[in-house]
Amino acid sequence: MNITDDDFSLFGLPARQRLDGAELDSRRRDLQSRVHPDRFTAEGAATQRLAMQWAVRVNEGYRRLKDPLSRAAYLCELRGVPVDAERNTAMPTEFLLQQMQWREALDEARSPADIEALDASVARDESARLAELETLLDDTPDTPSAATRVRALMFLARFRQDIERRLEAAGH
């Protein structure tokens, strides 16, 4: 193991969007058991610090690979096409139009049922876009298009948080 390995190499997994969550969890447990600082209490402070760095590295990699959106953004970056969502807001025109319609629907929603229906619709769209992203990253590698889809999915994640806040404010 090398602390500078990419997350996929660290976990011994193929660098692809489709991952077996149970396998990822199992590999995390194995890695954590090998690098946990408590295993090195008798070996001195320097060794324990190194073990702590490894434990942090394993946890960071696990979090990145566990979340499909983070994993997709990471794959794009590894393939030389960073998502760069803070500066690059390019998205397909159809998605921008859909985004405006969703925002209007949320603004116009009057009942928790209206908000829940909108959330269900957005969740279906999000699932379809995640499936499309898997195809773009794994089957027909098109990383620039995948990076654009990741930016759209980042918007969807934030928008679903907005929906959740509206539901909480409505008492749900």
Structure overview:
This protein has 172 residues and is mainly α. It has two domains: 60 residues, Helix Hairpins, CATH 1.10.287.110; 77 residues, Monooxygenase, CATH 1.20.1280. It is globular and about 65 Å long.
Give the topology, please.
Layout: H1 7-11, H2 21-35, H3 45-66, H4 68-78, H5 93-108, H6 112-139, H7 143-169
Helix pairs in contact: 2-3, 3-4, 4-6, 4-7, 5-7, 6-7
User: Percent range for helical residues?
Assistant: over 70%
Low-confidence stretches: none
Rg result: 20 Å
How far is it from the N-terminal to the C-terminal residue, by CA?
A: 47 Å
Sum up the overall morphology in one term.
globular
Number of helices: 7
Largest sheet report: none
Count of separate structural domains: 2
Overall pLDDT confidence: 91
Judged by helices, strands and strand pairing, the structural class is mainly alpha
SSE string, helices as H and strands as E: HHHHHHH
Descriptive labels:
mainly alpha; 172 residues; Monooxygenase; globular; 7 helices; 0% strand; Helix Hairpins; 72% helix
